[in-house]
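User: My collaborator sent over this chain with a note saying "see what the structure looks like." That's all I know about it. Can you take a look?
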Amino acid sequence: MKEKTISVCGCTPSSSTTTENSNRTIIVHFFELDMSRSGVSSCNTCMSVEDQVLQMVADLRPVLEKVNTVVQVKKTIVQSLNQAEELQFKASPSIRIDGLEVLPTQGDIFGLGERFWEWEGSLYNAPPTALIVDTILRAYANSEQTQNTTPFIYQTPEPLREYFTDSFEKNINDNCECS
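Assistant: Without extra context I'll predict from the sequence alone. Here is the result:
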């Protein structure tokens, strides 16, 4: 499993990024599908959403530090169906912030095609900045109290299952728009 902790500037954080006075830690976990099966290292959407997340964390970090909260960013490249099921991976790219998720809900949620995020009744081709900020702030607000939520039972989405099977390669060839 490829997983790394990254700082907002993209380098590996040192112990100096965590203060001794911190009472809370919010983990912003960025997940993306390993696109090497499609012949690419990543897609434009994943790269731009990752950049957007890093920028939002950089913008919010000074505010959260004032309330003794450290934000850590982790990234995982999902490389197998077993790993996807273990991580309860639902779409690519996904952002999980202390259990709260920001993920595309429509479109090609596991491929190179266009996907959409819902926010306040509208669809967007990238997660709106306000959605990411709202989720980070809700994670902060919920860090000392647990939401009253129904337990979620994960089921592997069929498109993800197909991606990691031989039928995916057949679909790529059948749906190829190259000329």
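A starting point for your reply to your collaborator: The chain has a mean pLDDT of 79.
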